[in-house]
Amino acid sequence: MSNVVFDISMSLDGYVTADGQTAEEPMGPGGDRLHTWMSSPEGQRLLEKEGGRLGAVICGRKTYDDSLPWWQAGGPTGPLGVPVIVVTHRPAEPYGVYRFATDVRDALARARELAEDRTVTVMGGASIGRQFLSAGLVDEVSLHVAPVVLGGGTRLFDEPLELRPTEVVDSAEALHLRFSVVSTGLASLPDEQDASAGRA
Ligand SMILES: NC(=O)c1ccc[n+]([C@@H]2O[C@H](COP(=O)([O-])OP(=O)(O)OC[C@H]3O[C@@H](n4cnc5c(N)ncnc54)[C@H](OP(=O)(O)O)[C@@H]3O)[C@@H](O)[C@H]2O)c1
Q: Among 6, 67, 89, 119, which residue carries the largest CB count within 10 Å?
């Protein structure tokens, strides 16, 4: 079965966009800095590596609406033409590489079908990523942490999550951190007594 990876770029202070988003500037003023790594040699190498095993992408409706002017009918992977499932309350007819699903589980079922045994990447935004995580649907988290503090914007994480680091790639443009998901939700974290016992 496909591996499900939540893959997103984040600022050092945990935001996936800057404040003040507009249609012309969907990442907000300065927010494009989060994606600078994509045009670096190390970024290109990572994207090629991931692209080779990518079977389907899932994104939220806001990410789709904001990005369509750039992605056009071919989607975020351009010539690879990887199918994109958009999670939305307002489903539309299939268009280009895009298909529409009305909840996260349906989106995942359709993405798995299209991906066969290749990777399903949940590319965000924050809302969709958090829902996949809290529903326990994500195997791995891949964070591209840009060396920039935005001071506000769309916050990524909002509830407990326990991860095990599996890979670190450093470059001048971003730290690329990969984790496997150990567990999600409040039950996953030790209480103070357990934590003290662990330190003793
Ligand atoms: N830093 C990065 O790497 C990165 C990556 C991706 C996106 N982004 C940015 O993140 C921003 C969007 O993030 P976001 O968190 O605001 O939004 P999002 O996750 O892209 O989309 C949220 C929208 O999806 C629909 N939706 C959410 N949950 C749903 C559910 N359970 N069932 C059906 N529909 C559901 C709703 O739209 P409707 O009710 O309208 O259908 C909701 O408003 C964009 O500006 C994008 O540029 C950044």
A: 6
